[in-house]
Every structure is written in structure tokens, then in C-alpha cells.
Amino acid sequence: MQVIHLSVECFPVAKVGGLADVVGSLPKYQRQLGVDAAVMMPYFDRKFTQDHEFESIAKGEIYQGSALLSYEVLRESKDTLGFPLYLIRIPGVLDREEVYCYPDEAEQWIAFQYAVLHYLKTNELKPDVLHCHDHHVGLIPFLIRYTNDYRSLADIRTVFTVHNGQYQGWMNWNKGILLPGFDTWKWGLLDWDGLINPLATAIKCCDAYTTVSEGYLEELYEEANGLQALFYDERGKSHGIVNGIDPAYWDPINDQLIIENYGIAQVDEGKLANKKILCTQYGLDPALPLLSFIGRFASEKGADILAPIIEDLLSPADVQLSVFILGSGDANIQNSIAALTQRFKGRLGVFFGYNEGLAHQVYAASDLLIMPSRVEPCGLNQLYALKYGTIPIVRKIGGLKDTVIDVEDAGYGFVFADVDAAQAAATVRRALTYISDEKQFDEIRANAMELDFSWHKSAQKYIDLYNQLLR
User: Fold this and answer.
1) Element (H, E) at 142
2) Which residue positions form the known binding site for ADP-alpha-D-glucose?
3) Is 111 within 8 Å of 43 (Cβ atoms)?
4) Is 252 contained in some domain?
5) Domain holding 308: CATH number?
6) Residue pair 102/135 in contact by the 8 Å Cβ criterion
């Protein structure tokens, strides 16, 4: 079985969020299970592409509206990611440094999808499955069925994965001229509420759609930024499959990005050694429990209540807790956190931005990780934390409620119900009572580290879905 994953992110080529981690791992584990899986994505002028060797395997031309675009398909020569990686380069369109935030994003992603299909058709390539990830490639299921040029690809099965239904790729209908010629009777498949909506198009036209957790699938029926009725109507082809993590990259026993490696037997010593390094660097007390947040400063991540949570927890002068924040995003949220650094000097450490190595070190050093999310389709941070013996404190939402069970329900984490600073802070205090009982906390930590959230099980579920569609 041949599967091509289509995405605009893939770790470590280009990463903005969890989408990249999924696309950078799932194909590798599918190959280990006997599937010929590969990734095709846009070319970005970033460190990975600069440092690795690529060979040009195809060139072609497409008209996007009246503009003639030349594209080139590059293949990474040594398959260093554990699967074949193909990049689509289009001068002036798909050759930039950043993944997002350009004013012509719609044109970029249309050109990418168009070039992918042109390459497949002109080279007479027909994979069994095109697995499309998020709205950036949401037009693919429509294009292969209803455009004049690509109906020869219509028998390829399409799977579409919703990583975050809040972002849908909306564009005005004046962009329709950029698409390959299509059966105009089918215009309604592109439309949602007067706009071209690639996410809605994908749900309408794909053979099956998946979400990155079972909990998130159910939530999309109730709230999906206007698409909840569509998700519900198409529920017959829906599947919730929780994301996994790559233990080759996320495992404290062999992680090359942390100071001190450790397993379950050495967790106390290993975490303390990593905590001492981090706390010394940021002026914190390594003798205190360490609570951390890692992520985007966005309201959907609940980051807007971080400052009130910190104030609630650290205002008592005798509090036995340090806090570390690693993140970037909304300037107002960042400023609210920055304003607390002097007030809580010695108890609050921050790094504004994203640093992959530092993130690994924070997981290894922390005792607790907080995720007060409003929306969390799956969440990977809580899975990384559990692997490193860092106990997650999460809001009961989406994939968080699927993967974190409260200790009071014989689980290995701490769960609260609402996006509320006082409630979140109270849950942190509840967690601290368990930390104060060293034997009890050691048991929780050991149980957490023994959990298996690797990609093996999830990769097999996707393969089972492919086989079902091919039958």
C-alpha cells in the first residue's frame, strides 16, 4: 500500500505547532508496519533544507489563473527522517522562510495542491491513499474528483485529518479563478456561507475524515467555528484517532537535548539534575516544586489566564513553588506575564520564544505542567510530560480528557473543568499536596512514565482505516 501524506508542516523541516510533530512521525511508524508512506510538502528556505541534500526528480508548469508557474519536485536524498520526503518548490511562491503569515497564503496553498496533482498525473503516479492534513490541503479531495484535468486520479482514496477545526482557510470567491477548471455544477462543494472553505470542502468530498482524538470529534459536533452541522451530517465517515509521540525523540532515557538522561528507576535523581541546571540558569530554587507552561500565547490555549494563575499561586510570600513559562504569541499575553517577572523574581522564570532544546529540558526538569486550554484537539505536551515523569494539570477538554485521568480516579494527572484562573490555581495546590507525600508522588510519576502513547497503536489504526477504504 502506498500512502502520501500532504501537509505544509513536518518536523524537523518546518514546524509551527503539533501538526508538524504528527506528520514528522506518523509516516515513519507506518513504514515500520509495512506501508510505503511518504510526505510531500512545500519547500521552505530553512535550516533543514539548507543542511540536507536534495535531488531534483521532476519539473513542470501550471497555470494559476493567468499566471504561469514553474514548479520543481525535490526529494531528500538519504531519507534521514525515516521516510521519503518530497518538497514542491515554486520560485516566488513556495520558496520562503516562514510557513505562515504571508498575505498571499491562499495562492500559496492552491499552487501547492495544484502542483502535487500535476506531478502525480504527468508522471503517471497513483498512490493508494492521499492523506491530507488540515485546511491547507483541503481542496485535494475536490480537485481529483471534479476538475477537468485530474479526474484520472479520482479513484485514489482520500483521508482528511482535522488537526484544528478553528482554522478553515476561508477565501473569497474571486480566488476561484485560480483553481483548475472544474464542473461548475459542483460549486456548492467548495462553498460555505458565501466563501470558499477548504476545510468544509474536504469534509464534504473526502472518503473519510479523522480527528486527532475521540473527544475532539464529539466536540466538533457541538462547536466547530460554524461547521458543527457539517461535521455531524458527515459523521458516518468520521473516526477519532488520538495522536502519538515519537519515543525515538521524546524519551528521557536517550534524549540528546537534556542534561541528564534517566529512566523510571532514576527519575528522582535525573529530574533533580535537570532541574538544577534550569533553575540555576533562570534564578529559581531547585529545592522547590517546579510548575511549567510550554506553548503558544493564544486564548485557545488558555494562555490569557496564565498571569492570573501565577499571581494567585505566587502572591503568598511563603509559597513552596517555582514557575517557568516558555512560549510566544499574543503580545498582550506576553506583556502580562513579563510584568510579573520583577514582582516574583526568584520564583518566576520566562523564555519568550520557542527553543526546541529548552523545551526538552523543561519537560525533564519540571514536576508539573499546566495546560488550561479552551480548545485542544489532541494535545501533545501532556503526552511528552507524562513520558518525562512531569505530571500534567489539564482542563477537561478535547484530547486532554482522553489522555489524562485524574489521580482521584486512579489516574496519573490532575484535571479541572473550566477555563478559570482560580480553579486552575486550586488544582495546582491540590497537586502540591501529592508532591509533599514523596512515596505517593513517586507512584504517580512511575505510573505516568509507564504509559504507552507511542505512535505504534495509532499508526495501525490509520492503516486499518486505509484498508477499509480500499476494500
Assistant:
1) helix 140-146
2) 15
3) no
4) no
5) 3.40.50.2000
6) no
- Amino acid (one-letter) located at 371: M
Please provide the DSSP assignment of 327-367 as one string: EEE-HHHHHHHHTTTTTTTTTEEEEES--HHHHHHHHHH-S
Q: How many CB atoms lie within 10 A of CB 101?
A: 7
| Strands lying side by side in the sheet with 85-89 | 54-64, 67-76, 85-89, 36-42, 2-6, 129-133, 157-162, 208-211, 238-240
Q: Both 137 and 86 in a single domain? A: yes
- In a domain, residue 193? The reply is yes
Rounded to whole angstroms, the Cα distance separating 142 from 122 reads: 19
For the chain, how many structural domains are there in total? 2
Cis check: omega of the bond before 141, within 30 degrees of 0: no
Q: How far is CA 70 from CA 53, 62, 114, 120, in A?
A: 21, 7, 11, 15
> Strand runs (DSSP E) across 90-136, as ranges?
129-133
Coil, strand or helix: which one is 260? coil
Residue carrying the nine cell digits 521532476:
58
Question: Does the predicted model carry a pTM greater than 0.85?
Answer: yes
Indicate the angle between helix axes 438-450 and 421-435, nearest 10 degrees. Answer: 110
- 164 and 104 in a common domain: yes
Question: Contact 351/326 with Cβ under 8 angstroms?
Answer: yes
Binding residues: 15
Residue 256 contacts residue 324 (beta carbons within 8 Å) = no
What burial class does residue 50 get, using C-beta atoms within 10 Å of its C-beta: 0-12 exposed, 13-18 middle, 19+ buried?
exposed
Q: How far apart are CA 203 and CA 113, in angstroms?
A: 17
Q: One digit per residue, pLDDT tens: the chain, 471 residues?
A: 999 999 999 999 999 989 999 999 999 999 999 999 999 999 999 999 999 999 999 999 999 999 999 999 999 999 999 999 999 999 999 999 999 999 999 999 999 999 999 999 999 999 999 999 999 999 999 999 999 999 999 999 999 999 999 999 999 999 999 999 998 899 999 999 999 999 999 999 999 999 999 999 999 999 999 999 999 999 999 999 999 999 989 999 999 999 999 999 999 999 999 999 999 999 999 999 999 999 999 999 999 999 999 999 999 988 899 999 999 999 999 999 999 999 999 999 999 998 999 999 999 999 999 999 999 999 999 999 999 999 999 999 999 999 999 999 999 999 999 999 999 999 999 999 999 999 999 999 999 999 999 999 999 999 999 999 999
d(CA 123, CA 73): 12
